[in-house]
Amino acid sequence: MLFSEILGSFTYLIAQAGDAGVLTYLQEKFNAGGVFMWPILASLVVGLGFAFAKIWTLNRASVNTKKFIIEVKDALQKGGVEEAMKVCENSRGSVASVFHAGLLRADEGVDAAEKAIMAYGAIEMGFLEKGMIWVSLFISLAPMLGFTGTVQGMVEAFDSIAASAQMSPSVVAAPIAIALLTTLFGLVTAMILQVFYNYLISKIDKIVADMEESSIELIDALYEISKK
Prior knowledge:
Blueprint: H1 2-19, H2 22-32, H3 37-61, H4 65-89, H5 94-104, H6 110-129, H7 132-164, H8 169-227
Helix pairs in contact: 1-8, 3-7, 3-8, 4-5, 4-8, 5-6, 5-8, 6-8, 7-8
């Protein structure tokens, strides 16, 4: 029942927004939603702030892995470990950091380099996932704030009924409007942040997969060098 009411309200809002200016219409509905609209808006703004900051961080951590591996292998063949380390030092991204950690231990043997790569890879994974909990927090917080506003609106509706001693649409219209608007805006905020969260997770997974695949290639390249 509640879901159908929310869906109906959302459809009605879209229809009305098409007739009026979108920003003006949203501002009117925001003001009509009551005090809980402000923390919902804050959840959206702060959540998007964390999401955009994380996108910037992940973009810096991403590299053209295939091209980078070729450069490192060529450096290993031509100048050995020292030359390969210089390539890593002049490159940004998680893969370069993991490679550099492994190459630092290459003089101790391939097994030591492999252990260093695994250890530093775990550290890099933690770095990539850092801050994601905050986006997740606001995804959960926004609808809870919306439902809290809904409860407040329903309480005000019943208070209005008790004060007027009658059940009429004019008595309960405003409180119920607050109840539905806060729920609607809370859910929309959560959906927007969820899209960004899923995008970030997919980007992290891709970087981690690149690290794992490229690390195997680096270990194989070190084995070949050690046999010569």
